[in-house]
Amino acid sequence: MVQRDNQLPNMQLLCLSNGHGEDVIAVRICQELQQHPATPEVAALPLVGEGHAYSQLDIPIVGPMQTMPSGGFIYMEGRQLMRDLQGGLLQLAWAQFKAIRRWSKRGGVILAVGDIVPLLFAWLSGAPYVFVGTAKSEYYLRDEAGWLPKRSRLERFSKSVYFPWERWLMSRPRCKAVFPRDTLTTQILQEWAIPAFDLGNPMMDGIMPEHPRAIFYEPDAELKEMQRSLIVTLLPGSRPPEAYENWQQIVQAIAGFFDTFKERKLLFLGAISPGLNLEPLRQTLINQGWSEQPTEFTLSNLQLNDPTALKFTQKNATLILTTDDYNLCLLKGDLAIAMAGTATEQFVGLGKPAIAIPGKGPQFTFAFAEAQTRLLGPSVILVEHPDKVASMVQQLLRDPDWLQLIAENGHQRMGEPGAASRIANCLMERLNNRL
């Protein structure tokens, strides 16, 4: 049994997370904790999937892991839940709960990252816990001006995106800190005496360079802007086979750019998840008239680091597929055509617009895309058909006030980089004072 005498080097901490994006956020916080003067002994249990993100850390996994048929999207539709139940969801949850209880008897603390599932497990463990709420934001229901239309009676009755039972779990004495994903959500939770801290969203960490180059505006900046390529980042999502279907819609959308932007060079950057096979994406491009270029084909000023990147051309456009230059694709893009979750949020957080096209799911459905427009506000523009994307981009680029609104909104809703470090420091301070 670990002695609880404020000897922080002996503190043991268990990370619970439920999804790939949540795993990544948990890993970022743990990496910061490992830099802390009183480094805790960290273990983890990914509740959804196989927790590949944790391979970056040399820490033990304390319980069973299993990929469910839904890929973690059981809330999208009833059929996905049934498939997961048939795939052993209840047995997995019970085995994970027993593993958490066994671990908690050692006297450690729990870092729960995600939604009510890790939060509930943290409470049931009997151990002190902190919660990083990644799944919910008050922006789904309201903005700074007030309630959004068409919210359900339950949501209005609850007075928060977090339901009363979730707030109850966050207000227990063993809950030492809550880290919501944005300022608005933090302010609402604080109304219920929940120990909520507004420290930012770890989702934005690691994207911007630590020492960005200074920006200097030249007298002929406007002319140079028109002479350079319009850069569009393409985000089809990360889960097969859905991402391949999304890619077909995205390729259909960019076909409209040839007529709409005849006088301008176009550069499309496909930010492809390493878990996807490039061949179906390549074949879709070939079928739509794109010509593959030899591997030695290069682009000036792009600084691609991926030697396996595929390059294609058609008319006045160049298209790159890369699985190893994700941050570069986000940073270089002027705008994105996005059918993704986390990637879209990160792109918007850089102050840039994202054009969303509803897909067939299971993740990126019309309902998901509509909810994303509420979460991210004017930074996400929902276009119901791929053929309408190019004309929407043209309208956007002709409206500098609209672009300025999007830039300010993105930074406000996603916060500044460095959240993982701020959360780690606050977590250690709270646990040191309260254990």
In short:
The protein is α/β, with parallel strands linked by helices. It has 17 helices and 15 strands.
Number of helical regions: 17
**Might you state the CATH topology name of the largest domain?**
Rossmann fold
Strand element count: 15
* CATH homologous superfamily identity of the largest domain: Glycogen Phosphorylase B
What do these coordinates show?
The protein is of the alpha/beta class. The protein folds into two domains: 8-206 and 417-434, Rossmann fold, CATH 3.40.50; 221-414, Glycogen Phosphorylase B (Rossmann fold), CATH 3.40.50. The protein contains 17 helices and 15 strands. The protein has helices at residues 20-33, 78-86, 89-104, 116-125, 153-158, 164-170, 183-190, 221-227, 242-255, 257-260, 278-287, 326-332, 342-349, 366-376, 389-397, 400-414, 419-434, and strands at 12-17, 41-46, 109-114, 129-133, 142-143, 146-147, 175-179, 230-235, 266-271, 291-292, 310-314, 317-322, 335-338, 354-356, 380-382. The chain has an eight-stranded mixed sheet, with helices on both faces. The protein is globular. The two termini are 15 Å apart.
What would the keywords be for this entry?
alpha/beta; Rossmann fold; 435 residues; 5-stranded parallel β-sheet; 2 domains; 8-stranded mixed β-sheet; disordered N terminus; single chain
Please specify the SSE layout and strand pairing.
Layout: E1 12-17, H1 20-33, E2 41-46, H2 78-86, H3 89-104, E3 109-114, H4 116-125, E4 129-133, E5 142-143, E6 146-147, H5 153-158, H6 164-170, E7 175-179, H7 183-190, H8 221-227, E8 230-235, H9 242-255, H10 257-260, E9 266-271, H11 278-287, E10 291-292, E11 310-314, E12 317-322, H12 326-332, E13 335-338, H13 342-349, E14 354-356, H14 366-376, E15 380-382, H15 389-397, H16 400-414, H17 419-434
